[in-house]
Description:
Elements: H1 6-15, E1 34-41, E2 47-54, E3 61-62, E4 74-75, H2 76-83, H3 92-95
Antiparallel strand pairs: 1-2, 2-3, 2-4
Amino acid sequence: MHILHDTTLAGLFSTLGFKKTNYNEDGYPRYSSCVTIELWQRSNGKFYVKFYYFPLDEDMEDVTSEIVGCSDPCPLEQLADRSKKYQAKPNIEKVSF
């Protein structure tokens, strides 16, 4: 489980390709809202992920199909590939001791 601020949750929504800062509406996510990511393994041995959004005082919503570059369920490899552009690429010489 990851606990984060509303602005961090809005950033996650942006990296998932959602067009609005609060999944499907403008404005910051409401306090106590959360995203749950489930990892599943199918009988063929392949891993898949599902994303669920829990806005405060509302029912859980499966938002996996809304993720740009992912099918539903989203194969873990597909999620990793579409997310590479967001991976930090530090200058190793500057950050190494």
